[in-house]
Amino acid sequence: MSKETLTIRDNRTGQEMVLPIQQGTSGPPVVDITKLYKNFGLFTFDPGFRATASCESKITFIDGDQGILLYRGYPIDQLAEKSTFLEVCYLLMHGELPNQNQFDDYVKLVTEHTMLHEQILNFYRGYRRDAHPMAIMVGVVGALSAFYHDSLDVHDPRHREISAFRLIAKIPTIAAASYKYSIGQPFVYPRNDLSYSENFLHMLFSGPCQEYTVSPAMARAMDIIMILHADHEQNASTSTVRLAGSSLANPFAAISAGIGALWGPAHGGANEAVLNMLHQIGDEDNIGAFVKRAKDPNDPFRLMGFGHRVYKNYDPRAKVLQKAAYDVLEEVGRHDDPLLKIAQKLEKIALEDDYFVKRKLYPNVDFYSGIILSAMGLPTSMFTVIFAVSRTIGWISQWMEMISQEGQAIGRPRQLYTGTAQRDYIPLDKRA
Ligand code: ACO
Question: N or C: fewer beta carbons within 10 Å in the chain?
Answer without folding.
Answer: C
